[in-house]
Amino acid sequence: MRSNFKPIGNYVQQANARNLGLSVTNLQGVSINKFFMPSVANINGTDLTKYKVVTKEQFAYNPMHVGRDEVLPIAMLETDDPVIVSPAYVVFEIIDKQALLPEYLMMWCRRPEFDRNAWFTTDSSVRGGFNWNDFCEMKFPVPSPEKQREIVKEYHTIVNRIKLNERLNQKLEETAQAIYKQWFVDFEFPISAEYAAAIGKPELEGQPYKFSSGKMIFKEVLKQEIPKGWELGNLSDIYQFQYGKGNNNPDNGGEYPVYGSNGLIGWYDQFNSEDAPVIGHIGVNCGSIVYAYGKHFVTYNGVICKNRGRFRKFFGYMTLLNKDLKSQIRGSSQPFISYDMLDGINIIIPDKQLISQIEKMLNPLYKKIINNKKQIKCLLSVQGVLLPKLSKFATR
To answer: Cα–Cα distances in Å, from 247 out to 262, 274, 286, 298?
Structure first.
């Protein structure tokens, strides 16, 4: 019933607290995915007393570029610690949280229909701005507080499951990296039966190599010792690096994830890479590394890492993670990292038996990560179905 739809302006008011005492230093922006994120703005010499303070359960949105991006970047602060945002942002709060739950309003602002309506009402300027009055005039269904809590609870059941899977994946990644570091950085891999027999000390089988006085050879190129029998190489021995395709922001709701310099940025109906790392090529996040599982699309802002087949995929990925790619960045106004820079980065190549051993250890971890990611994708699909139907749920 449309009679339940009320203007947002009936329930909100602007909040214009400024950072006068400079007590808040955490400068944030708002992404088109509707989350707060660290700002990349250069604030050297900037008067931060003019910046707006956002506190828990307050909202902030960027009124610029809505006409260009067809999205209103808006977010609700969920943390206890306040943040500051640009003076150009609009900061507002709920007048009466007993009548309108902040989480319920944020759910409504995540709906595709909300963004379409915001886009339709942008001004005619080049930037396509979206003013406060336009926002206040937008209408949405306001059910009883009990119904709001029911809807929010259902939504957060999905959100919390997604967050749980993301935390599990982070722990699994950390475990995999710890194993790699122990073996191929600290050189404390388990001594093989063959090596123990060759040095006449069979009792050392399974013991950590370096701790057990395993033979080390100094390599001038690396300025360090490495285990005897290991080789020197370059990242180009593992990967063929190439830039993604020119479309910097393909997103038509297709089935394949899209990766750029900022990680996952959308979904497309085409793919140009499969089951491989993606390195940020240009911008503030160049040198960042994401492992893209399954078929995916990489934009020109990303570098595709195509495995040459000589090494197992997770060994190659771990080797990338343990390289300081940020040190290879060039450019001052627009940082970048090119594939020829990546080609020449030195690596240590262990013997094949060790690579096979660690791959067997890493495979179960990454199998679990992949399963969790599949669950996340399904949950996001459910979330995507739930939000467009919010008005029906709210008016039942």
So the answer is: 15, 18, 17, 9
